[in-house]
Structures are given as structure tokens and as C-alpha cells.
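Priority: low. Protein: NUDIX domain-containing protein. Input follows.
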Amino acid sequence: MSQDGIVLVASVSIFNDDKVLIIKENKPTAIDKWNFPSGHVENGEDILYSAQREVKEETGFDVKLIGTTGVYNFVSNTNNQVILFHFVGEVTGGSLNLEEDVISDSKWIKVNELVTFENKDLREPCVIKQIINNLLQKKIHPISVYNEQLI
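Result:
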């Protein structure tokens, strides 16, 4: 969702045992860049639902959100102000089925291996590295800090 130049994004680190899933995006603004599954929050959409929807669309997995590393505010490489809500989740169903034409690759890796990626290979490297640092330091807050949208 974009409002007055602000883009809202939901992002998820999906864990399976001690490994996290990363995807390689093939989008016009992020060609061959590694990232966590993420995308825009749709108008009127609950942030928690948005995070789960984006994971399903990009990877084919159903996830349960179990925590958050926080909210990140930054100016993107496309010069948009972005407010990114980053969650931690675990797979509850589905199977790996990458979104065609948007995601070109994926891999399960240990969190400490994420620090070996070079900035040029990451989408929004400063933010991704903050998220990685929070994951490594286990700075994960309870999902209960978010209130689900009341309808």
C-alpha cells in the first residue's frame, strides 16, 4: 500500500528447524537480489494477513507468524519511504512453489550464513542486515504486540 509516498511492506523470515528461507527476486526494481519473502500491504488489509498472503504468493508455503523483529523505516533504492513490518514464521503447510516471473531461486540456509552475502546481492542491504542482526541476537518480540484488524 502506498499513501502520500509511504509504502507499507510485510516481510517474513520463515524458519524450518535451524534454517531460514531466502528468495532471489527477479523484479524490475530488484533483479537477482536476495530477500525474505515480502510485499506491499493492500489497502484495508490486516498486516498479519498481508504477511501470510505474501509468503503464500511468493513461495507456496502456509505460515504461522510466531514473532517479529520489528518495524523498519527507510528510503528505498527507488526513493520511496518504506515502513517494513518484519515477522518470524514457521511453515504449517503447502509446498515450495516459487511465484513465476518474480522469484527466480530460493534456498534454506542458517541465519549466520546470511552475513556472508555481499551488499550488492541483497535487496535493501542495510535493512536486511539489521533484520539478520536481530535474528542472530534473538531479538524477536511476541506476535501479540500486533492487534488483528477488527471487522
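The longest strand covers residues 61-75. The helical segments are 47-59, 125-136.
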